[in-house]
Amino acid sequence: MSKKKGLLESEISKTLTQWEKEYLGRGSVQVKTDILRNLLIIQLQGILTPAEQALTQSETGMLAVKRNRSELIETGSADLKKIIHEITGVEARCFHTDISTRSGERIIVFTLAEDLEAKLDQ
């Protein structure tokens, strides 16, 4: 892994955490970003509030937390794509995300218009 790749991954993680704090009111406990070909894979841990964790004890609560968190992040997806473009210089074409209410982990995957990993290796 080139140093530039590691720095870019770190910057994406830091910026996403800041966005979460500003947009959602709280950030993740831990964020890890990986650049793989034309994909950005972001793993966020510790995203559920104590109230959400309590809600996930029932199936109804778990589904409500998943739905609400998905809707919140989807409403900010245009902002997230813009952030990724500003940091990487590459357009984010698609945005995919899911949350585990059991582990409190969210995975975000951006599909980029170009192979960012190959560009960084040049």
Explain the overall architecture.
With 122 residues, the chain is α+β, with helices and mostly antiparallel strands. It has a single domain (3-121), classed as Threonyl-tRNA Synthetase, Chain A, domain 2 (2-Layer Sandwich), CATH 3.30.980. The protein has five helices and four strands. The chain has helices at 3-24, 50-55, 59-75, 77-88, 116-121; strands at residues 30-36, 39-45, 92-100, 105-112. Strands 1-2-4-3 form a four-stranded antiparallel sheet. A hairpin with a 2-residue loop joins strand 1 (30-36) and strand 2. The longest helix has 22 residues, at 3-24. The radius of gyration is 15 Å and the shape is elongated. The two termini are 12 Å apart.
Number of strands: 4
Rg from C-alpha positions? 15 Å
Secondary-structure-derived class: alpha+beta
- The average pLDDT is 92
Arrangement of strands in the largest sheet: 1-2-4-3
User: What is the percentage of strand-forming residues?
Assistant: 25-35%
Quaternary organization: single chain
Q: Judging by the overall fold, what is the CATH architecture?
A: 2-Layer Sandwich
InterPro entries: MpsC
Protein name: DUF2294 domain-containing protein
Organism: Alkalihalobacterium chitinilyticum
Pfam family, one: MpsC
SSE topology sketch:
Layout: H1 3-24, E1 30-36, E2 39-45, H2 50-55, H3 59-75, H4 77-88, E3 92-100, E4 105-112, H5 116-121
Antiparallel strand pairs: 1-2, 2-4, 3-4
Helix pairs in contact: 1-4
